[in-house]
Amino acid sequence: MTLRIGMIGTGWFSRKHAEYLSEMNGVKVQAICGTSMEKAATMAADFQGSQGYDDFKRMLDSEKLDAVYICVPPMAHGQIELELIERNIPFLVEKPLGIDIETPKKILTRLEKSSLLTAVGYHFRYKQSVQRLKKAVNSTTLGMVSGYWMGQMPEIAWWRKQEGSGGQFIEQTTHIVDVLRYVAGEVDEVYANYSNRVNHMKYEQVTVADVGAVSLKMKSGVVATISNTCILPEGVNKVGMTFYTDQNMIEWHPDRIQIKDTSGSIMEELKMDNPYISESEAFLHAVRTGDASQILSDYQDAYQTQLVTCAALESALKGVPVKVK
Ligand SMILES: NC(=O)c1ccc[n+]([C@@H]2O[C@H](COP(=O)([O-])OP(=O)(O)OC[C@H]3O[C@@H](n4cnc5c(N)ncnc54)[C@H](O)[C@@H]3O)[C@@H](O)[C@H]2O)c1
Q: What range(s) does the Gfo/Idh/MocA-like oxidoreductase N-terminal domain occupy (predicted)?
């Protein structure tokens, strides 16, 4: 049976997902919805046999879709998910779930009354390096973690506006928060300091903070810090985490892991894997068979990550620690 997929969004990541999907057996990119007919038709022309739409409800009325990929900016979530739940159409939604808690909470409440399959684009969970990390940390007593996402501000206009992206910690560094939760459990409380140092003076209409340091108290007693910046010059980046345990120190980067213990230092270069393909395969396997066991991040789980990143924003704005609830 060929699965018919609808794409919502015609930007960078919708194209990426559609490219991977169109190379899979038994999967067809059937319909593409954009904010204009022109954008939708342009993208549809690149995926043979697909149809463009400029209204997602019309797309859902006109096509019989087995699943939908939602690849829109953080501020555009809400109606799309609610409509898909109403129509009982499984969806994979890109992270983050929104710019705040209100909209994801509404969606979660509706999802809890259904048994609809969902997946969220926290793709690092599907990487070999994260699976290796989880296994390595599990056989130790973890003390503390430091994580970071240091880089540049993306060119896209919505990213620079607080009301468009939610800011770097909610939009980007959310991946690090999600890996932390996946490996080390739930977060109890956060205290954040954000500042605008450079970008608002260099570029027009920048309202997101460009440096931030967040201290996290985990329910297990583990303490963590996660920092981020988007002021670095092009090509200067650092993304990763360090785990400090009673037996070793583990440096994790998306494509490699280094474990240092008393016997020396072991660097494990892992083979380059494509987590976006594994993520889609897990989701589509669930759509085909009803077996959701391979989905490593669903809406309910991703909501917990959203709670942490939004609590950090609240803490930065209020200047006080905030409980994650
Ligand atoms: N998991 C990852 O590694 C990863 C990587 C890149 C992007 N993303 C996420 O994917 C999402 C989209 O990012 P992008 O880079 O593709 O952005 P983009 O700006 O390139 O594309 C967004 C698209 O959504 C469209 N859009 C906006 N509102 C819409 C609506 N209501 N209906 C239909 N289309 C709408 C825009 O016109 C645009 O085509 C973001 O949340 C981003 O964080 C995830």
A: 3-122
